[in-house]
TrEMBL record, chains A, B:
SUPFAM superfamilies registered for this protein in UniProt: GHMP Kinase, C-terminal domain, Ribosomal protein S5 domain 2-like
Lineage, broadest ranks: Eukaryota, Fungi, Dikarya, Ascomycota, Saccharomycotina
This protein's name: Diphosphomevalonate decarboxylase
A GO CC term attached to the entry: cytosol
Domain Mvd1 C-terminal: 191-367
Organism of provenance: Australozyma saopauloensis
Alphabetical UniProt keywords: ATP-binding, Lipid biosynthesis, Lipid metabolism, Lyase, Nucleotide-binding, Steroid biosynthesis, Steroid metabolism, Sterol biosynthesis, Sterol metabolism
Assigned protein family: Belongs to the diphosphomevalonate decarboxylase family.
Length: 381, 381
């Protein structure tokens, strides 16, 4: 039995566009920050036994079975690596031939569009790799997670992670690498405003295909804008330059949503509440005379606002001022008295468009845990 | 005394970006449709007399005086042309030396962002050119109107109008030309949904400057996307190919708003209501299996929906179904019974974001009128 936990990651340099749908090979390299375990995490336990009837998967307590092509592809790759080990060492039990049970739970707000599938596939790969005692490095395993969900490959590392797009058609060089670990910049924090939305977003896989096929601005983004930004953002992270990191994060979020809007038909992920939050962050930075907070939005209206611990009382103070009505502030209730009261005008009704706040920070990536979701009989507890 | 009327024009290929702020020289060529007189028009009367005390201007009944640099620049150019005439023919009265009175009225909904300044400067130039009996062709005069407001140059023609960006630094080749007159495609109609908005838009001059200076996608738009589309859109107009014209109109609107969003800080003109209207138009076209309606949005949330008369009962039928509560339908009250009832699902509350509908059609451009706004004494009536 093996247990793994992984967490969500939020792109600061966006992944948008596939050059190979089946292998999840991207049209550009990307960078993300992996967030802390306690707030947004998937806990996955894998167990194998010759006595199990068949491969099976339980998600949040519900038996799902192993159906999706992407899950099947990950499982196949992991079994192949295990088979190679077994072939080299006859004393090893034949795990690769036994059915596998996977039990997974996440604590993401339901359907909030918070990259739960990335965390899910990362946790699945890590849990099975541990069960199989695979010797491969995380970058190697990230190629398997990538086939499950592109962004999942970056969740195999903590801290700041790059997904190098690679050139090969078989995807063997399209993998995640660590830019810097959590310990390099542990004061990086994030406030996630979960924005309510009345409409269903375009699923990201469909959206990407549409952008690649129809946006006239997309080629310029992936060939010219992103490659330059990729190098510059790595430098900003390595030198812990929040202003540079923040500016690029905001610009790349906007650039990504711009090519979505330039798709035909256009794809909209930002709503009026998202736009208000964007303006609030710019107003804060302008008043401070430097960038102390940076927003990014994935394929949905939720805002992720990065800031450094040193400016927490300002950044959270401003967000608290206008969004104190939403749930999620309990975590910092003893800090509220220190929050600064900045005078930045804002729509005092904007909180109505937000369902909750998640206060979190940079995380250490996949971790083993003693907490198991599987009983001795190999079934969900 | 001379009287001119001109109307608004709505860009189908967007003008966004100046290479020269003072001369209003654009970074790309653009195309627009000039709309009909009765719905959105500026009526301007110009009078000159040696007995007037000074140059003066009244706008919608209010004495404004001639203050703005742009108005002064237009007046100077027009006087220069008149002076040349007077120099060549001594029998002509010395209008160029006399004070001028300009009285202007428009019927645009207040501050609705419906290109009223373009119509205003076009009417001013036409009225004074008539008063001065200038022999210059409209394209020549369009260069003067352009200095008032870039888009104004296109309002000097009816029908479909191109603004050729030109190359010269003095702007002498940056002028409007007719693509096709009203008579070429008289069945082109437009429904304008005036969208309410709680925030002040970024003024277009400021917005353009910001996009030119900060958007990473902008250069690609103006150097690659627009030049190709400019030629293709002219062809679509000349062949009365609504599907091609409509698709390019929608794509260019989206491309323009994409580079606004890619600006730093980002500029938003579309709001949630605008986005709903965009989706409705795409849903209609999809159900019909061809493009019979096309939206375009200028620097604000108002939707201009173009369609051909032959599909009026479908297009207006759908808009009426979901926006019948807003004012502006009186004009077609006898037609409502023929409207088709299409079954396209939509947010039935969306009408709350729209203040009125303006039903209009392609127009013939500047026209002389017997209606004068100036009394015999040279003052507003």
């Amino acid at each position: 039995m093996s247990i793994g936990r992984t967490t969500a990651n939020f792109k600061t340099l966006k992944y948008w566009g596939k050059r190979d749908k089946t292998l999840n090979l991207p049209t550009n390299s990307s960078i993300s920050v992996t967030l802390a375990q306690e707030d947004l995490r998937t806990l996955t336990t894998a167990a194998t036994s010759s006595s199990f009837e068949k491969d099976n998967l339980w998600l949040n307590g519900k038996e799902e079975g192993i159906k999706g092509d992407r899950t099947i592809a990950c499982l196949k790759d992991l079994r192949l690596l295990r088979r190679e080990m077994e072939a080299a060492d006859a004393s090893l039990p034949k795990f690769s031939e036994w059915p596998i049970h996977i039990v997974s739970e996440n604590n993401f707000p339901t359907a909030a569009g918070l990259a739960s599938s990335a965390a899910g596939f990362a946790a699945l790969v890590v849990a099975i790799a541990k069960l199989y005692q695979l010797p491969q490095l995380m970058s190697e395993l990230s190629k398997i997670a990538r086939k499950g969900s592109g962004s999942a490959c970056r969740s195999l590392f903590g801290g700041f992670v790059a997904w190098e797009m690679g050139d090969l058609t078989n995807g063997e060089d399209s993998k995640a690498v660590e830019v810097a670990p959590l310990s390099h910049w542990p004061s990086m924090k994030a406030a996630i405003l979960v924005v309510s939305d009345d409409k269903k977003d375009t699923p990201s896989t469909t959206g990407m295909q549409s952008t690649v096929a129809t946006s006239d601005l997309f080629e310029h983004r992936i060939n010219t804008v992103v490659p330059k930004r990729f190098e510059e953002m790595k430098k900003a992270i390595l030198s812990r330059d929040f202003a540079a990191f923040g500016e690029m994060t905001m610009k790349d979020s906007n650039s990504f949503h711009a090519v979505c809007l330039d798709s035909y038909p256009p794809i909209f992920y930002l709503n009026d509440t998202s736009k208000k939050i964007i303006k609030l962050v710019h107003a804060l930075n302008e008043q401070e005379g430097k960038i102390i907070a940076a927003y990014t939005f994935d394929a949905g209206p939720n805002a992720v606002i990065y800031y450094d611990q040193e400016h927490e009382n300002k950044v959270l103070g401003l967000i608290h001022k206008y969004f104190h009505q939403v749930s999620g502030w309990e975590k910092v209730s003893d800090q509220v008295a220190q929050f600064e009261d900045l005078s930045i005008p804002f729509d005092t009704e904007a909180y109505k468009g937000v369902s909750r706040i998640i206060l979190t920070q940079i995380g250490s990536g996949p971790q083993e845990t003693s907490e198991s979701l599987v009983s001795e009989q190999g079934l969900p507890k």
